[in-house]
Every structure is written in C-alpha cells, then in structure tokens.
Amino acid sequence: MSNRLMGVAIFVIAALYLWQARGFQANFGDILGPSVFPTMIGLIALVLSASLVIAPSGSVSWPEPRRIARQAAALAVMGLYVLFLGQLGFPIATFGLIAALAVLMGGPVPQSLAVGAALSLGLFVLFDRLLGLPLDLLGSWFG
C-alpha cells in the first residue's frame, strides 16, 4: 500500500510539474523551446509513478517513529528556510538551515553552530562575491 500511496503522490507532483512546464518562457534556448527538457522529465516521472500505482513491487518496512519525526522536522526546517529567506537574508537564513539540519542529524550543538556559520558565510562569499549572483546580505526585516 505504501508504494501505491507514494506513486499517487509523485503522480500528482509530476502532473503539476508538467502543467507548470507548459508555460515556461525564456529569451534564449534551442529550436524546440525551453519547455522540452522539463516536459521530458515530467513525463518520465508520470510514467514511473503510474507504474508504482499499477504494479507495486516488494514489501515496505516503515522506519521507527523517531526517524520519521526527524525527517518531518528536516522538511519543516527546509520549508521555514524558503519562507524566511527573503525576510532574514541569505547568510542568516542559511546559518539557521545548516545548523538545524546538523543538529537533526545528531551533531553536537556547538559544532553545528560553527559549521552553520562557516558554510553560510562561505556560500555567501562564493555566490555573491566570486560568482556575481546577487544575494541579500540582510533581509527585509533588517533593512
């Protein structure tokens, strides 16, 4: 039953992805247009997810509830990152994301905070300064 539920979930996501890919516009690209590659990926996901619904294989053993809770917490942290990236700015939001995920994976809090600080600043310098991709240093909450 788990395979079928996952197949339905992926099928719905792939269908929404295909619907979005229809209107993809770009001022550059190949002769076929910019939506060809996303459409191919979406169709493959649609077919493979349908195969999970029609003919699931094998048995599924669910992980223990504690592991599922950690995975749900990691998804929640990533969702919060997306929601607050504009308000907090890249370095602060990325620090929170990396530190929280490191703690969820079992890392000690001081080291998780240090890794979060180092990676968030390093990624900001890499993308904003070296690669020239503009990122907000401070979000809308800080000016």
TrEMBL record:
Protein name in the entry: Tripartite tricarboxylate transporter TctB family protein
InterPro entries reported in the protein's UniProt record: DUF1468
Pfam families linked to this entry: TctB
Organism: Sedimentitalea xiamensis
Keywords: Membrane, Transmembrane, Transmembrane helix
Residue spans crossing the bilayer: 39-60, 72-105, 111-131
UniProt domain DUF1468: residue ranges: 5-135
